[in-house]
Amino acid sequence: MASGSCRREGKSPKLPELPEEGELMPQQQQQHRAPKARQIVLPFVEPPIPQPSKYKEFGLPEPKKAIH
To answer: Are 63 and 55 in contact (CB under 8 A)?
Structure first.
């Protein structure tokens, strides 16, 4: 009997873990989006640095405007 109750208790903690994971998932998505946004900005900002001169030579609009 005691072992059965222990097993039930083992299952009960999983229930609270599910809502916790659900709460963590949105937080992780937001945290992942923040770093990803920064990572996307860095690579996009780095190449435009050498490109602007070429864009100016061709008379095309600078890529900086496209980023903003």
So the answer is: yes
Contact between 64 and 54 (Cβ < 8 Å): no
pTM of the model: 0.13
**DSSP structural state of residue 43:** H
48 token code pair:
């435009």
Rg (CA), the chain: 25
Domain ranges across the chain: 2-67
Q: Give the angle 37-32-22 at the CA atoms, nearest 5°.
A: 145
- Residues written for the chain: 68
**Side chain identity at residue 21, one-letter code:** E
19-61, pLDDT tens digit by residue?
544 455 555 555 555 555 555 555 555 555 555 556 566 666 6
Give the number of C-alpha atoms closer than 13 A to the C-alpha of residue 21, restricted to the C-beta side: 6
